[in-house]
Design a protein that fits this description.
- By secondary structure, the chain is an alpha+beta fold.
- It has 10 helices and 12 strands.
- The strands form 2 sheets. Strands 1, 2, 3, 5, 6, 7, 9 and 10 form an 8-stranded mixed sheet that branches.
- β6 and β7 form a beta hairpin.
- α5 runs parallel beside α7 and α6 packs antiparallel against α7.
- It starts with a helix and ends with a helix.
Length: 469
């Protein structure tokens, strides 16, 4: 009985220990789970170590590499090496044209460059035929086309917040590879019609290492492969974009496929009308005001002519500083220098008027029409108040023509000296007589200039705008 009682007690104690131990371990387990869940909020996002071991991006990346069998192939070689050239389709979407520089003869463009090709080494089984998308971390371990921009000065792939690279792999091995690039490329501009010009720039794409026997570049969707957003530029209007292709030959490596993105830029003229053409026209018209100022107002006419000449020089200097130093004449140069010539001729015109007036006064003094007490130099410098009528001139006695009569004839019989028939002959004036006439009537130079200068400038503007616009 004692043995049975002891065995019963031992069995009961073991049962109690199991029940209490299970409760305590359960409480500890629930406590750890509770602390683990609350630690996310209490300690700023820290999670339990066991959960961290279960969630690992490295494990997922290894699974992707195993799925695509990255380690089983040599991706330093192109797909189908030794066979036909691999076709690589190109698709471009232009995001913006950031700047166009006439001084550096280049342009800066931001675009999305997409490549399409097939690499059977990356094919994988899939039940729902869905593609897999990766970023730049996997791109560095596989083969991608080595497309570069011909005639580029600077280019970079955007890396904010991560590198803007996307790789999409389909189960059958088709690949889409997209990058966001900003490139600054050369544009050979012709400024012979500037600022009424139209520029044709192009961005060229080509494979650097693989010639046409290894890689064939082509536009994925023909002319529809080039897409653009609504692009607005400050000084240019984009007429149209055009995609084209061709071949480039290098003597040491052979022929390469080359793709072209051509776009035509037409310059807005309104900015230059406000900054260059309208001020130039006003300066030329302002120089004509001197034709209506009295020819003896020397300070007024000289200061007006010098002011317009200096203003034209400033306009020409400002335009030249913002343009490249080309070896040919631009359309704006023709307009500016012709306008400068009109302003300069208006100053020369007054110099001629002043000189002729001086000669006229000196001749009058020699002929005795001006009193000896009169000072011609003071009169010439007098500000517009001196006139010929203010001087007391001594006119010469009027000469009456006398006719000689024949003593055999009576006084009533005067011979008729007029020719009875034939044409009347007039003696043509010599150059000296024309000059003397111009000197004696110097005010006529201003009268003719008031009409000749505006008509000549109007004719020049008509020819200029018809020729370049």
């Amino acid at each position: 009985m004692r043995v049975g009682a002891l065995a019963f007690l031992a069995l009961a104690a073991s049962l109690v220990a199991k029940v209490t131990g299970g409760r305590i371990s359960g409480r500890r387990k629930h406590k750890e789970v509770f602390l683990g869940e609350n630690s996310k909020f209490k300690f700023g996002g820290r999670i339990d170590y066991k959960l961290k071991r279960q969630d690992s991006t490295k494990t997922l990346l290894i699974k992707s590499e195993q799925l695509l069998r990255i380690e089983e192939h040599d991706f330093a070689m192109r797909p189908g090496f030794g066979g036909a050239a691999i076709p690589v389709g190109i698709d471009v979407q232009v995001e913006s044209i950031d700047s166009i520089s006439e001084v550096n003869m280049d342009f800066t463009m931001t675009l999305y460059l997409r490549h399409y090709w097939k690499d059977e080494r990356l094919s994988f089984p899939s039940r729902n035929n869905q593609s897999r998308t990766f970023d730049s971390r996997l791109v560095k371990k596989m083969w991608v086309p080595d497309v570069f921009f011909v005639h580029s000065k600077r280019s970079f792939i955007h890396d904010t917040t991560m590198e803007n690279i996307m790789l999409r792999v389909y189960p059958d091995g088709n690949i889409l590879y997209s990058v966001r690039v900003t490139v600054t490329a050369l544009c050979s501009m012709d400024f012979s019609s500037f600022p009424l010009d139209t520029q044709n720039c192009s961005l060229e794409l080509e494979s650097y290492a693989y010639n046409e026997n290894d890689l064939m570049l082509y536009w994925k969707n023909g002319n529809d492969s080039l897409r653009t957003d609504e692009i607005v530029l400050s000084q240019f209007f984009i007429e149209h974009f055009q995609a084209s292709s061709g071949l480039a030959f290098y003597s040491s490596t052979g022929w390469y496929n080359r793709l072209f993105i051509n776009f035509i830029l037409r310059r807005h003229i309104f900015f230059f009308m406000l900054q260059t053409y309208f001020p130039t026209m006003l300066m030329v018209v302002l120089s004509w005001v001197s034709f209506w100022i009295d020819r003896r107002a020397v300070p007024a006419r000289v200061s007006l002519g010098i002011t317009t000449v200096l203003t034209m020089s400033t306009i020409i200097t400002g335009v030249s500083s913002s343009m490249p130093q080309v070896s040919y004449v631009k359309a704006v140069d023709i307009y500016l220098w012709t306008s400068f010539l009109f302003v300069f001729l208006s100053v020369i015109e007054y110099a001629a008027v002043n000189y002729c007036t001086t000669l006229e006064e000196m001749r009058k003094m020699k002929r005795g029409k001006i009193p000896s007490t009169f000072n011609a130099s003071q009169a010439m410098a007098f500000d517009g108040c001196f006139h010929d009528n203010d001087m007391e001139l001594t006119p010469f006695p009027r000469m009456t023509p006398t006719l000689t009569s024949d003593p055999l004839t009576t006084p009533t019989q005067t011979p008729d000296i007029r020719p009875t028939g034939g044409t009347r002959l007039r003696r043509q004036r010599s150059v000296r007589e024309h000059v003397d006439l111009l000197v004696s009537n110097s005010y006529m130079i201003d009268s003719y200039s008031r009409l000749a200068f505006p008509l000549s400038y109007l004719l020049f503007n008509t020819i200029y705008w018809c020729l370049y616009s």
